[in-house]
Amino acid sequence: MEKNFHSLPKNAKCTRCKKQAILRLPSHNAKFCRECFIHFFETAVIRAMKKIKVPKDTPIMVAVSGGKDSLVLWDILNRLGYKTKGIHIDLGIDEFSQKSIEAIEKFAKQRNLEWIKYDLKDFVGHSMVEIHKKIRRKICSFCGKLKRQLLDIATVAEGFKVVATGHNLDDEAGRLLGNLLGKRLQYVKKTYPYLPSPHPKIPAKIKPLYRLEIKEILIYAELNSIQPVEIDCPLSKGATSRKFKMALDLLEDQMPGIKRNFLFSYIEDNKPIDTFENYNECKICGYPTYLELCNLCNIKKQLSS
Ligand code: SF4
Ligand SMILES: [Zn+2]
Ligand SMILES: [Zn+2]
């Protein structure tokens, strides 16, 4: 991982404790030593969990892809005393999936954490690579929908009521910008780090890292010797969401803190959704869905036709 935060001059002082600083966070107009950065990071997650309002004794299923966000999320929730279990959805994407599983195994073993793996192939009959070959379209939105349903199924099957994902401030601000530009106002109103359970078969969803930028997550990972999977998914091809994040990064370079203000101004105005449309039952498997078929049955149908 890139060590890009040790380049401060020798006399740079930590904003909080006045010892030697090792890193600068322009969006907070602050420099920190190691201890004060960890304190800053913990405080951001504690504040997020206050907003999310999940009681401290509620067990949390943590969705772990093997990437930096999910491993950092798992680490910090344990550090803060939450009872957690990791869940990984094995998508069957060749070396990328193998290396992701290795990264999770290593991380969990070092910290003595419990985790479980569910295989996409067991539910759909095909790996994501096979699905990609068959449907020959951009795969990420299919993949996202299938992963979300499998996460929901697995979380409930494992006896958990809450699943946490590693979405960070950059993800959420990028998504908000995309929804505003696309005039998807129904999603703009849903910009919030907590989605209550809308159905007994669907767990509540939380985003405890929503106050933290990707740069801050990378620093935390490095300071805590967290080693995420280093290769990118070979099926990812220029996702549009990246472009919105890049646009916000350009603004952030000129106006540090603007990304955070942009996202938080919407979150402050919004409330967690408390009304849900009526679900149908999937005509094939009975799973709750707004459509005729759930995502898993829908993709199985497309693959068999
Ligand atoms: S990049 Fe796309 S295909 Fe790859 S794991 Fe992510 S969502 Fe799935
Ligand atoms: Zn300090
Ligand atoms: Zn179904």
CATH fold group of the largest domain: Rossmann fold
Tell me the count of domains.
2
Which kinds of small molecule does this entry bind, naming each only once?
iron/sulfur cluster, zinc ion
* Total count of strands: 10
Secondary-structure element order, as H and E?
A: EEHEHEHEHHHEHHEEHHHEEH
Taking the alpha carbons of the first and last residues, their distance comes to 45 Å
Estimate percent helicity: 40-55%
Q: CATH superfamily of the largest domain, called what?
A: HUPs
Strand order of the largest sheet: 5-4-3-6-8-7
Question: Cα-atom Rg, whole angstroms?
Answer: 20 Å
Q: Provide the CATH architecture of the largest domain.
A: 3-Layer(aba) Sandwich
What do these coordinates show?
The protein is α/β, with parallel strands linked by helices. It folds into two domains: 34-274, Rossmann fold (3-Layer(aba) Sandwich); 278-305, no CATH class. The chain has twelve helices and ten strands. It has a six-stranded mixed β-sheet with strand order 5-4-3-6-8-7, with helices on both faces. A two-stranded antiparallel sheet has the order 1-2. A two-stranded antiparallel ribbon has the order 9-10. Strand 1 (23-25) and strand 2 form a beta hairpin. Helix 2 packs across helix 9 (214-223), helix 7 (169-181) packs across helix 10 (240-254) and helix 7 (169-181) crosses helix 11. The longest helix is centred in the first third of the chain and has 19 residues, at 34-52. The protein starts with 22 loop residues before the first strand and ends with a helix. The mean pLDDT is 93. One zinc ion is lined by residues 282, 284-285, 287, 293-294, 296-297.
